[in-house]
Amino acid sequence: MADQPxxxxxxxxxxxxEYLIAFGQITVQWSSMEHxxxxxxxxxxxxxxxxGKSMTSQTQMQGKIDVLGTLLSQFHPNLSPHFNKxxxxxxxxxxxxxxxxxxxxxxxxxxTNDTHVMKTVAKGKLTSQGRTVDLDELIQLYTDIAEVxxxxxxxxxxxxKLQRQSDEPNQPIPTIPNHQDCATRKxxxxxxxxxxxxxxxxxxx
Length: 205
Hints:
The chain is mainly alpha-helical. The chain has one domain (13-104, 135-197). The protein contains eight helices and three strands, in the order H-H-H-H-H-E-E-E-H-H-H. It has a three-stranded antiparallel β-sheet with strand order 1-2-3, covered by helices on one side. Strand 1 and strand 2 (115-122) form a beta hairpin. The longest helix is centred in the first third of the chain and has 29 residues, at 17-45. The radius of gyration is 20 Å and the shape is elongated.
């Protein structure tokens, strides 16, 4: 990217290609996570796939998380507290980073080859922020997203083996611990589901 191209070519070369590959991975992994979240909803609600798609395809990620969390709290309350940790990790450690990739203005400096992102927010006050982003940060993001997807897949595999525990509404929702950092939240949230279920079985009277 030493020579600055012009017009359309300039726009197509605005960001280093390695970053564009990372953006693509983030987009693909996020879509995969949304899809497997929808599958978990259909499965938990015991509805056919075509009906499920009709109900969830236009729902944003925040809504999908809420629906799946509600279904688990109603029918599998033993899994609900742990899913709340996963939901909190997605909301507080992944969603904002993904939105920055999707909605930020990205460009690579021709002189330094550093890649920057600018984000403007207009919520009562107009603010703009910008910073340099290392490629490793984006690689870590799409890896984190893929790991969440894999955890939800494990939930889908285990859930048919579990007996519905209640159809009663208004079950109490456990409080969520306030974890201090995303690394800790990730470790606790993405704990292998088989280990969690074994521990619960061992603790059962």
